[in-house]
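Annex B. Sample input.
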Amino acid sequence: MVSPGNVAALTLALKTDVVEHFETSTGKRSLDQQMIKSKGASCKLTVEEFTIENMALALHGTSSAVTAGTATAKVVSTTAPTLGKRYLLEHQKVSSVVITDSTAETPGTLVAGTNYTLDADFGAITFTLVSGFTAPIKAAYSYAAVTDIGLFTATMPERFVRFEGINTAASNAPVLVELYRVVFDPLKDLSLISNEFQKFELEGKLLIDSTKSTTATLGQFGRITQIGQPMAAASFCLLKRKAASVKFTSGHPKSIDNPYQNHSRQAHITQQQQGRPPKQP
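Annex B, continued. Sample output.
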C-alpha cells in the first residue's frame, strides 16, 4: 500500500433530505410527520504531505515520469538574448550545461558566471553579457528524472476508505471505520506561498455499494466496528490514529498485513478496481 503520510484529521458527515408534514386540525400547524426523501454522506481528510499520489488525487490528475537523458543543440533564443531576461530550457534539474552561439564553422562558447547565470534546478538561464556572440543561442545539457502531474487529466477518482483508530478515552480500544465507495472532489484550495507548515483537504462523497444487499444490517455506504470497548462505555470519545497514515492501494484490503499484529492503527484508502470496492466479509 502507498501511504500519503500523516493525515491530521478525518471526519465523516451524514445527511438526510426530509419531507415535512404539518397538521392543520388544531390551527397551530405543528410538525407531525417526516419522511426521508434522500440520504447522503461525505468525508474529509486533512493531508500534510505532498506526495505524487496525494497530488494526483487532489488535482484529478495523472503522474508521468520523465526519465533522465541528454539534450543537444536546443535553441534557447533565436535572436540576441535580452540581458536580465530569464530563458527556460525544456527540462529541469540540468547539469553539464554548455551554451554556444551560431558562429559559422566554430561556434563560440558562453561562460557561466560571465555571460550567463544558471538555475540548474528549474532549468533557467539569465544572460548577463552577450556582445560578440551570434544568434541563435543553443544549449546542450544532461537532465535528471522528474515527475509531472497534470490537472484534470484523470477521471473522477473513487476509493475504498478504511480507518483503523483507537479510542483514547476508552483505554485505547480499537475502532474500525470502512467507507465502501468514496468519490473525491478536486482540490479546493492550495496555498503555494506561506510561512506555515502546509496541508490540504480532500473531500469526497460516499456512494452506495450495489454489490451489498439493501437488506443487510450494515447497509451499502459503510460501517463502524467497535472492536474493543464500546464508545458508550466512555464519558467522551476521542478517536486517534497510532503510527498513523492514510494509504492508497489497488489491492484487496485483506492483502495488507493485519494491523493488530504490530499494534499499529492506520487509515487506508484503497483504489477501486473497475469502479467498485473490494468485497467485504
